[in-house]
Structures are given as C-alpha cells and as structure tokens.
Amino acid sequence: MEVKKKPQEDAELFAAIRAGRHELLDELYVQHRAAFLIYAQRQLYATEDDAVDCFQDAVIAFYKNIVSGRLTELTCSIRTYLFAVGKRLVYRKNEKRHREVPSDPNAGVGLGNDPANELDLSLLNRFEDDHRKALMASALGKLGGTCQELLTLFYYHNYPIESIQDSLGLSSPGATRIKKMRCLDKLKKMLNPQ
Amino acid sequence: MDKDKLQDRIDGYLSGKGSPEARREFEEEISRDEDLSRELDDTKLAVAALELAEDRALKSRLQDLEARLAHEGAPNTEVSGVSTPKPEAKVIGMNRRKGWLRLVAYAAALLLLLAAGWWAIAQPAGFDAQQLAMDSFTPYQNIVTGTVRGDNDSSAEAAAFAEYDAGNYVAAAEQLSALPASAKYDFYLGQSLLAQQKYAEAQAVFSSVMGDPDFPLAQEAAYYNALARLGTGAADEARNALVEISDTDGHPMQDEAKALLTKM
To answer: Where in the sequence does UniProt note compositional bias of the Basic and acidic residues kind (chain B) (predicted)?
Structure first.
C-alpha cells in the first residue's frame, strides 16, 4: 500500500488538497483550530460553540473554493485565509444572534408596522428552502452508495473520470462515463419527477 | 446532439470551463433551446443536491474530529469559561504529617498563577507588528459587483472581482491594476496587496484614495492604510492614525481601530 507523505508547508498542503487529497482537511483543522478558537472568543466575542462551528465552515469553504477552481493560487498563508473567512462567519453569527434577542412584542404597534416585513419573508423563504433541502436529501438517500459517490467525486471534488474509475474500481473510463450518465439521469428524475 | 456530449457541454459550462466566446455561444443556445435549458436546470439541481449532501458529510466529519479532539483533551480553548463541562477534580485528603507537601503544592500553585498572569499580560505584546497587522486584516467585502459566482458577466471588472472573491489576490491585483484609474479599483487593489502582505505597496495605494473626498470608502481606506503602516513596522505612525480613527465618532472603522489599539 502506498503511504502518502504528509505535507508540511502551506504550499505543499494546498497543492495536495488541490490534487484531491481531501482527507488532509483534518490535518488543516487540527493545525489551526486552537488558535482560531482563542482568537474568535477573545477578539470577536464568539461563544466557544459558534467559534467551533464557524471554523469548521471556514475549512469547508476553503476546500470548496479550491475544488471549484475559484482558489487556484495561495496568495496568503492558509491560516490568514481561514481566519479571514472564519471571522466573516463569526460576524454573521454575532449579527444573527443580536437580531434574535427578544424585544418588546408591542414595540412599534400602531406606528405603521407591516406584518409582511423582511423577517416574515425571510422565515417563509427559510421554510421553502428547508423543504427543498429535505427533498434533495431524500432523493440522494434513494440513489445508492456507488452512484452518489461517483457523482460526488465528479461534481463536488472535481475528480477526473480516470481517477474516479480507479477510486471505484470500475473497468474503464468509458464504463465510468456511462455509469456517471445513468446515475445523473436517475438523480435528475428523482429530483424532478414528471 | 448525442446526449453524452450535450451533458459534457453542460458540465463544462457549470464548472466554468471554456473561453468567454464559447460560453456566450452556449448561453445563446440555451436561450433558444428549451430542452437544453431544462437539462441545464436539472443538472444544476442535481449538483446542488450533491453539494448539500457532501457539505453535510464534511461538516459531520469535522464535528466528529472536534469531538475526538475534545475527548482526547486538546489544548483548552475555552475563554469565557461557560460552555464546556470539565471533569470534576478528584479530591484527595492530605496527610497532616506531610504538611510540607501542602506548602510545596501552594507554592507551585502560586507560581502557576503568576506564570499564567504574566502570560495573559504578555499576550498582546507577543504579536509582532506584521503578525498583528495580518491578524487584524479581513479583505473588505466586494461591494462593487457583489460576490461573483462564475456567472455570465465576463467584463474585465467582473473578472477582477471574481478573482478577488475567490481569494486569488495575485490575479486580482494584476487585473485591478489594468482597469481604468478609479478610487474604487484602487481601494480593492490595496486590499489585494495587503492580503499578499505587500505592506508598502498597499500603503501607497491606500494613501492615494483616503484623501479623495468624493470616494465613499475613504474612511475605510484610512483604516487599511494604518494596517499597512503597521505591517511595514511603522508602529508609531500606525498608532497615531488609529487613535485618530478611534476618536472620530461615527467613523465606520472606529470599533476595529479601538480593538487594534488595545493590542498594540
């Protein structure tokens, strides 16, 4: 079995993740987690749970920007990048928390308050969004493990067909392409039954 | 057209591949062809479902890792001291005859307290100027084009800001420099240089826009100028600029300046 070398430097780690070694996200997480949690709690007044949550999302955002091709070159340290994204997420969470502070329910009554305000609409949007997400999750649940893995490797992790063939032990790139088409058709039909 | 080839074209389009001309042609084709447009929408929906599931899987993997780290006793990162329950300390009675042990324990605890106090006080000073500048820096949100997500607009401005949004600051700086002279482009050029830790260059750019009375982000530019100064090591100049900002009521970066001053 091939033992893959653990990248030490930022540039090496970035290149390895870009090349498809997404297991290295754990490495990244462990490397910068403690510093971020202290920073977010001390300087951004985040709760410990929020700091953890935002740091996880920052690591995921970093990865998604790499695989989607939006982040092609590392122009600052990985820590700076993660802290910048994490900081923005903490701000958003802090703002949301601030908005959720209960206020006097009678405040503003009779002052022209419109019940169809932005908050109400955003709640409605959220319910619709949740419903849509539930539909998506249920469709994927019925898709089958190999199909989901194949499509995820292709569309999410941006693996080339040849790497997917290797990863899933399929017979040839052509067979992998055919399977990908079939799986995609199946998923489309489940998401859009007509 | 062959269904596989059609899907390949859709996949290529969604992943941002192809020259701007080819993409434009494809978009025109989509606007004319209902079936193609439907296939594209269905693929987008399928990709969204996969993305949602994999985001959740990644999140769950990191949550498991977090739980393991917490269980294995990763360095304590709790600052406020409220949320994580700690195992109760086991209390062992000390033998009176071994009173000296108690004294040693008190002395050790006192030393520990002193060390912890010293460490807490010494923390801010532990940052060097560049580190502090970087730690305090968050690239300013793109409010020129909004976050660009590989949409159709292929103008030079959109391309530059797409790089900026993606965190490709080298490419963003290059492309912003090539745009017509404008304070708003310079402001984001300064951001891109600062992100690359090119402090002196960033400072020069911010200096040029912070004095522009017609530029709506001039005050923000003054703050980033102070950060860039800090990065160059000119801590006194940076401090003076930050004091001025923190003393200006209603300054949009007043809180940031105050927070930064407490660490200097």
So the answer is: 1-11
